[in-house]
Amino acid sequence: MPKHEFFVDMTCEGCSNAVTRVLHRLGGVSFDIDLPNKKVYIDSEHNVDTLLETLKKTGKNASYLGEKSAQ
Protein backbone atom coordinates (compact mmCIF):
# COMPACT_ATOMS: atom_id res chain seq x y z
CA MET A 1 0.00 0.00 0.00
CA PRO A 2 1.29 3.47 -0.78
CA LYS A 3 2.09 5.68 2.20
CA HIS A 4 0.92 9.26 1.74
CA GLU A 5 2.14 12.30 3.64
CA PHE A 6 -0.23 15.15 4.46
CA PHE A 7 0.13 18.48 6.24
CA VAL A 8 -2.75 19.15 8.66
CA ASP A 9 -2.80 22.37 10.68
CA MET A 10 -3.10 20.64 14.08
CA THR A 11 -2.23 22.62 17.19
CA CYS A 12 -3.31 20.31 20.01
CA GLU A 13 -4.32 16.82 21.07
CA GLY A 14 -7.95 17.67 20.24
CA CYS A 15 -6.94 18.35 16.64
CA SER A 16 -5.13 15.03 16.33
CA ASN A 17 -8.13 13.27 17.91
CA ALA A 18 -10.36 14.82 15.22
CA VAL A 19 -8.03 13.43 12.54
CA THR A 20 -8.15 10.00 14.19
CA ARG A 21 -11.97 10.12 14.27
CA VAL A 22 -12.46 11.00 10.59
CA LEU A 23 -9.89 8.43 9.41
CA HIS A 24 -11.46 5.65 11.53
CA ARG A 25 -14.85 6.59 10.09
CA LEU A 26 -13.45 6.33 6.54
CA GLY A 27 -11.97 2.90 7.24
CA GLY A 28 -9.37 0.96 5.27
CA VAL A 29 -6.53 3.13 6.53
CA SER A 30 -3.46 2.73 8.72
CA PHE A 31 -1.95 6.02 9.86
CA ASP A 32 0.54 7.81 12.09
CA ILE A 33 0.13 11.36 13.37
CA ASP A 34 3.16 13.61 13.94
CA LEU A 35 1.56 16.43 15.95
CA PRO A 36 4.71 18.57 16.53
CA ASN A 37 5.39 18.67 12.77
CA LYS A 38 1.69 18.83 11.83
CA LYS A 39 1.92 15.80 9.55
CA VAL A 40 -0.22 12.72 9.02
CA TYR A 41 1.16 9.63 7.30
CA ILE A 42 -1.52 7.37 5.82
CA ASP A 43 -1.27 3.85 4.34
CA SER A 44 -4.39 3.31 2.25
CA GLU A 45 -5.79 2.05 -1.03
CA HIS A 46 -8.10 5.10 -1.06
CA ASN A 47 -7.07 7.74 -3.59
CA VAL A 48 -5.38 10.96 -2.47
CA ASP A 49 -8.46 13.11 -3.17
CA THR A 50 -10.60 10.95 -0.88
CA LEU A 51 -7.99 11.08 1.88
CA LEU A 52 -7.58 14.85 1.55
CA GLU A 53 -11.34 15.48 1.60
CA THR A 54 -11.60 13.25 4.68
CA LEU A 55 -8.86 15.21 6.48
CA LYS A 56 -10.58 18.50 5.59
CA LYS A 57 -13.71 17.29 7.42
CA THR A 58 -11.82 18.14 10.63
CA GLY A 59 -12.16 21.84 9.72
CA LYS A 60 -8.38 22.15 9.65
CA ASN A 61 -6.28 23.32 6.72
CA ALA A 62 -4.90 20.19 5.03
CA SER A 63 -2.69 19.62 2.00
CA TYR A 64 -1.06 16.67 0.27
CA LEU A 65 2.75 16.62 0.52
CA GLY A 66 3.41 13.53 -1.57
CA GLU A 67 4.13 9.84 -1.32
CA LYS A 68 6.47 8.82 1.45
CA SER A 69 9.06 6.24 0.51
CA ALA A 70 9.02 3.04 2.53
CA GLN A 71 11.75 2.97 5.15
Which descriptors would you attach to this protein?
single chain, alpha+beta
- State the strand order across the main sheet: 2-3-1-4
Amount of beta strand? 35-45%
Radius of gyration: 11 Å
The helical percent reads 25-40%
Low-confidence parts: none
Alpha carbon gap, first and last residue: 13 Å
Number of helices: 2
| Secondary-structure-derived class | alpha+beta
From the spread of the alpha carbons, the general shape counts as globular
Main β-sheet description:
4 strands, antiparallel
The quaternary organization reads as single chain
Order of helices and strands: EHEEHE
Annotation, overall tally of beta strands: 4
Q: How confident overall, as mean pLDDT?
A: 94
Describe it for me?
The protein is α+β, with helices and mostly antiparallel strands. It is 32% helix and 35% strand. The protein is built from 2 helices and 4 strands. The protein has helices at 13-26, 48-56, and strands spanning 3-8, 29-34, 39-44, 62-68. The longest helix has 14 residues, at 13-26.
